[in-house]
Amino acid sequence: MNMTGQSRALVWRTPLLALVLVLTIVMVLYRETAAAMVTIWYRSGTFNHAFVVLPITLWLIWRRRHDLALLVPKPAPLLLLPLAGLALAWLMGDLTAVNSVTQLAFVAMLVLSVPVVLGIQVAWLILFPLAFLFFSVPIGEFLMPWFMEMTADFTVAALRLTGVPVLREGLQFVIPSGNWSVVEACSGIRYLIASVTVGTLFAYLNYQSSLRRVLFVLASILVPVVANWLRAYMIVMLGHLSGNTIAVGVDHLIYGWVFFGVVIMLMFVIGSRWSEPEPHRAPGLDRLLAGPPVPPTTPGRLWFVALVSVVLVALPLAAKWNMDRQASIGTAALAVPVLDAKGWQIAGPMPLTFKPDFKNPSAEVNAIYGKSDRSVGVYLAYYRNQDYSRKLVSSENVLVTNTDKYWSRVTGGGRVAVFGDDTQTVRTMELRRNQLGPTEQSGRLIAWQVYWIDGTLTASDHMAKLYSAVYQILGRGDNSATIVVYTPKDSAGGAHESLQSFMAENYAAIDTALRQAKSGK
Q1: 0.70 cut: is pTM over it?
Q2: How far, in Å, CA of 468 to CA of 471, rounded?
Q3: Going along 229-307, which residue ranges are E strands?
Q4: Domain coordinates in residue numbering, the chain
């Protein structure tokens, strides 16, 4: 059955109208999530490219308009179930104030609305443009610590290989000409995200072979990573050989971007040598048209699917509104835990002054306890009624920031510890004092950290978020805290043994203090 251009336009008119209405309603309902994405695009140079993702997506779809016109849109009601799952994922992310989850779920709802309303065949024909829209989600900075570590590993190894002596501790290292450190700008995440975004688009537009596309995308991942390692090494060597007169300060970043730009340009020039001409018709279109003719869907069925879609994406907002109405009110009060186990008492200041960097807690305590010749610090940061400006699990909540003038992270890891009557995995970290005070003789601390989620302990960021979301859905609220205990590395009997003894004997008192903060007592 052949349709004229006018009949095709009539077949598409109502489905397109339904799709536009569904997308508009989703955008309006989740406008705060969309606004948060745009704010990150504007604020962070890492994600400035996201401003052009939507225009590029629309252009890529427009290029397929003649092929799309040959298909008959037909809604796919079975996809309403995964749409509901995405709405639930958004709710879980919002309850725990995880931007990456809410924003991924929001974009996924927009993308999935296309096959829900227009059908799987239509979505399959524009699969890449729809998938490209996910590059608008500002995600990837969680990899920064790992990339900083790898950059430091490569730079130090390369310096030693070229005969430069290096003394390294954590992300800081010393060479004969001066001190260097790997900071966030050295991680290479910005280069990687930009390269993968542009490289993926380049591969789609220039290649037809799936193998060539995959290989080029892999190259767009590996090349900026290696280029960043080389950039960091060359920056240090330029500073070293010039007596720290070049490649320092602002020049550090300028040279980095110039080097990255040259490398990426060369990657595209080389990749263009294997480009393939684009076929006149979209790949797979003939197969889609080879089946029996698809009759146009009835308007009633179409609008019913669109209506159900809107209801499903609106349900999480209604649930969130109801939970906000029942949220705890009043100011949280957290008392210093009273310890009565085996001689631990509130003591004077520890020889090393330390306070973890947790932002905007509802209440916090930082106390020092002593027993004979041991001293242990306890830091509690308690959170209630969490939102995007006040949340326990955040990349900004750390024991030590990379810009801290007084403390630096040396090593980190984990171990199993006894908390009262139970065993629990904790995070461990060794910290070094950068600037010693007049009365400070030693410059090392050993710290343990664990999350307390309404009485449940976990050292995992992801599990802490999951517990918090589930407990809120169950009506238990979002009362959460971090527990950090720390002691000098040269503590009598060993630092870890001192912390183990302290937590085995006193966790019950700490738990009681946190539960009293929850109940308002």
Answers
A1: yes
A2: 5
A3: none
A4: 5-138+296-325, 142-274, 345-519
